[in-house]
Amino acid sequence: MADLDVVVVGAGFAGIYAVHALRSAGLTVRAFEAGGGIGGTWFWNSYPGARCDVESKDYSFSFSPELEQEWSWSERYPAQPEILRYLGHVADRFGLRPHIQLNTRVTAAVWSEDEALWSVTTDDGAVVTARFFVSAVGCLSAYQVPSLPGLETFEGSWYHTARWPAEGVDFTGKRVGLIGTGSTGIQVAPEVAAVAAELYVFQRTPNYAVPNRNRPWEPEAERAFKSRYREYRKEARESFLGVPITGTGRPVLDEPPEDVQRTFSERWRAGGGMPFLGAYTDLLVDQAANDVIAEFMRDRIRETVDDPAVAELLCPRTFPVGSKRLCQSDDYYAMFNRPNVTLVDLRSTPLSAVSAGGLSTTSAFYELDAIVFATGFDAISGALRQIDVRGTSGVALADQWAAGPRAYLGVAAAGFPNMFIVTGPGSPSVLSNMALSIEQHVEWIRDCIGYLSAHGYGTVQATSDAEDAWMAHVTEVAYSTLFPKADSWYIGANIPGKPRVFTTYVGGVGPYGSKCDEVAAAGYPGFALGVP
Ligand code: N01
């Protein structure tokens, strides 16, 4: 007899909702969270400037119409402290905290075939057993610090943005080096530049950023919007990205150039990546179409940055727009006009070493008081691979995923009975509105467990054939787009030695949800169901 029905790993958006949904279904649940607070990504990434690039009205739970009505977001794009407050409110409102054990890292999870249960070990040495094991570890949790020779000799302070000190960092008057110009680096840079004596931005690959045009959510607009929230949520679930977007519905290459400029300019003025990239139907599938939006964006960089040489270095050229996460910032490019900001091009002069006083490239030495690493994550599979997960016959998940992470419908790995992965490899996850995708997955998992009980089954596991077929479909859809052209974390290219496999489903949130619903309605074809 297991101690619990379900062990959940993680207490971010996914873990919080899993605890609520599974408990509401009558199951006994405990979540383990490595952090000292709930919030996951939004607990750890408390660096200055951290803000979601999905609008607050979308990036929030939809499961409770009351919650939806009573919570008021202050801004169009929510900042990290507000999201953390929101998640705290959800945990309190639904009485979830007693079921979440903080400061506890799951180190191993082993399936026992004889007993049909998972034994889950935590870093305090405790072992708990459960019928089901639900990973809610998140797609962007295993952070990466590059191995720079001499880092241990640095006499200043260094930080990774995904482990930001809760008390904050005062960079006033400091000489700061920032490594990394992805979504995170682009957010943190202007905040540091505003107070630091000097900011050196060490750029390996320039990135595309669209304006946020962030603004307060005025009470009147909020009231009007909330009067049709339910309808809007339904549209979101059926949409392509988990956010209803209105595009022109036409290919950019069929449009007169002046119409294209007008459309892009309007969307640029309105702000936000999704409506901008969703303006035309061919932008993410046709390189020639993508070249049009890329040149529009490079023109905006050139007109913003005063020094033409710096502007050219900031112009991305090596990957299609949108094939890496489109960054959002109102201040990033203009920041390079400040006298205390220097762009260092690592393509022509790579980093060579860190020493007591600062950072060296192959051509210069930069004296620094602090280094900020915004160098990203071992995404999608990294956090789960850090746990010693063993399925049927003791097979390690890390070995099974040696050629790349995989899961049937992005939720269940073959050979790992009664284990579910919220927004796992093969689901729309990071290329969708995560809040919505998390809800969809958790509800599907809850219903699957409910089906097993109702029909006298005790175990469920994806078959290898179903997993193979699904991942082949995921790959086929991905390779009909421009996504695989980028050396991105989506494809594992940012981690030395990681297999280059594109595992996010880009066939659309709506179609994906329908497929999951069909599988459930048909009695779970592609899964082997077993009696206890
Ligand atoms: O990480 P990244 P991130 N030497 O992997 C550079 C989400 N997010 O934390 O491109 C020098 O994108 C690396 O350079 P290169 C969002 O989904 C969302 O910024 O590999 N540089 C790159 O510039 C996002 O996509 C929000 O050449 C090194 C950077 O570090 C995801 O999180 C905000 C290096 C890493 O960029 C990850 O974003 C923040 C080295 N050795 C994050 N190693 C919003 O919602 C790496 N780099 C707005």
Can you walk me through this structure?
The chain is α/β, with parallel strands linked by helices and about 525 residues long. The protein is about 30% helix and about 15% strand. The model has no long low-confidence stretch (mean pLDDT about 95). Bound molecules: 3-acetylpyridine adenine dinucleotide.
Shape: globular
Low-confidence stretches: none
DSSP summary: helix tally: 17
Major sheet details: 8 strands, mixed
Structural class: alpha/beta
- CA(first)-CA(last) distance: 11 Å
What is the subunit arrangement here? single chain
- Rg, rounded, reads 23 Å
Summarize this, please?
This protein is of the alpha/beta class and 532 residues long. The protein is 32% helix and 17% strand.
Q: Secondary structure elements and their pairing?
A:
Elements (H helix, E strand, L loop, with lengths): L3 E6 L3 H12 L4 E4 L8 H4 L20 H6 L9 H14 L6 E2 L4 E7 L4 E6 L4 E9 L21 E4 L14 E5 L3 H11 L4 E6 L5 E2 L8 H8 L2 H10 L18 H14 L2 H5 L9 H18 L3 H7 L12 E2 L3 H4 L5 E5 L5 E5 L2 E4 L3 E3 L2 E4 L8 H4 L2 E3 L6 H4 L18 E3 L12 H21 L4 E4 L1 H15 L30 H13 L5 E4 L2
Helix pairs in contact: 1-15, 10-11, 15-17
The structure holds 3-acetylpyridine adenine dinucleotide (N01).
The site of 3-acetylpyridine adenine dinucleotide has 26 residues, from helix 5.
What are the main properties of this structure?
532 residues; 20 strands; 17 helices; alpha/beta
